[in-house]
Amino acid sequence: MTEQVLDKETWPLEAEAALNDVRKHVREAIVAPEMKSTNQKIYLKITTYEDEVYIVEMSASGFNVVSSSSANRNKASDRKYETLYALLDNISHRYRESFGEELSSKLSDLERQCQG
C-alpha cells in the first residue's frame, strides 16, 4: 500500500482535526513542534491525564507511538491504530473514563429530550 502524500499545509489541518476530537480528554494535545513532519506524516505530542507524554506519528496508514515517557510504550508501539481514539483507549485509562463519562452524559441528555 502506498502512503498517501499530502502537502505541508494539509497535514497540519488533518492533525488539528484529530487533536480537536480528543483534546478535552487529555491534558495536552498539540502538533509536536520538535519533530519534523513530511508530506507523508506528521507528529503529535499528547500528554495524558496520567501525565505520560507520547509522541504519535500520524500517517495515511494510521497512528502509532514513536516515543513515550511511559512504561506503556511497548503496549502501544508495536501496532498502528486506525484512529487516535483507539490508540488513546489502549494507553490511557483516564482518557477512557473521560470519554465514557462524556458519552454517558450526552446519552442522558438525549434521553431527557426524547421524554420531554
TrEMBL record:
Ranges where the GSKIP domain occurs: 14-110
GO cellular component: cytoplasm
GO process annotations (BP): regulation of canonical Wnt signaling pathway
Listed InterPro entries: GSKIP, GSKIP_dom, GSKIP_dom_sf
A GO term, aspect molecular function: protein kinase A binding
Signal peptide interval: none
UniProt family annotation: Belongs to the GSKIP family.
Name under which the protein is recorded: GSKIP domain-containing protein
Species the sequence originates in: Parnassius mnemosyne
Lineage: Eukaryota, Metazoa, Ecdysozoa, Arthropoda, Hexapoda
